[in-house]
Amino acid sequence: MPLLRDTALATAFDRGADTYDRLVGLNPGYHAQLRRSARRLALGAGGTPVWRVLDLGCGTGASTAALAAELPAARITGVDASAGMLRRAGARTWPSRVRFVHAPAEDLEEAGVRGPFDAVFAAYLFRNLSDPDGVLRAVRALLAPGGVLAVHDYTLGGRRADRLVWSAVCRGAVLPLGAVTGNRRLYRHLWRSVQAFDTAPAFRARLARAGFDRVRVLPLPGWQTGITHTFLARRPATEGDVR
User: Fold this and answer.
1) Residue 78 phi/psi, 5° resolution?
2) Which residue in 155, 198, 37, 5 sits closest to 13, CA to CA?
3) Whether the predicted model's global pTM rises above the 0.90 cut
4) SS3 track for the chain
């Protein structure tokens, strides 16, 4: 089965929106790991407050909640291509500094999402895109000079053991639970999209090719070590400031 992309993937997330939060909540540490990556944004920014944040691929708002908790002074714009996921996000209670926009990551300008942003946070996004390099270039352009990108995703570390653990978790839990929801295609896509996408070293190199500097790869603890990472990268403060 080919990977889901674009409209097909958004439709699958629309169908799965009502059960998605319950299923991911069964993953030990899911929300704590998002908050850890949100805290790491401040590390990438040198410890200074982050005031304007784009949560790209915000889904039902789990990543938005992590950002709102860890960056209490930030104005946050959550964007997602799935209307169903955004309806779930909008059903929560949010402070006035949080807003949501329905748009694919590839069409932010058309949806009125414009920079500069001090930071962009993207959780579980880039392996789902048809053109991850194009979106990385667009994100770089949306960031203020010196702004920080944090990517939180399942990106295998490159060892055979990492791939085996991921497949075991998917076969033992993710795929059976997905079948119960009647949305088997979405959860099979989740499994295969991680296998098909970059390893952590390859994604680090992709970020550097897109023009980011100070790229860091930070592992996450628990069973996800070697499977889930935080990537921090910076838009150079000046065009000549690339390291």
Assistant:
1) -95, 130
2) 5
3) yes
4) CCCCCHHHHHHHHHHHHHHHHHHHCCCCCHHHHHHHHHHHHHHHCCCCCCCEEEEECCCCCHHHHHHHHHCCCCEEEEEECCHHHHHHHHCCCCCCCEEEEECCHHHCCCCCCCCCEEEEEEECCHHHCCCHHHHHHHHHHHEEEEEEEEEEEECCCCCHHHHHHHHHHHHHHHHHHHHHHCCHHHHHHHHHHHHHCCCHHHHHHHHHHCCCEEEEEEECCHHHCCCEEEEEEECCCCCCCCC
Q: Which residues contact 228 (CB under 8 A, 6 or more apart)?
A: 33, 152, 153, 154, 155, 219, 220
Query: Beta-carbon neighbour count of residue 88 at 10 Å?
Result: 18
pLDDT, tens only, 51-69: 899 999 999 999 999 999 9
Residue 220: closest CA among 38, 96, 90, 62 = 38
For 176, the token pair is 């059976």
Q: Are 41 and 119 in contact (CB under 8 A)?
A: yes
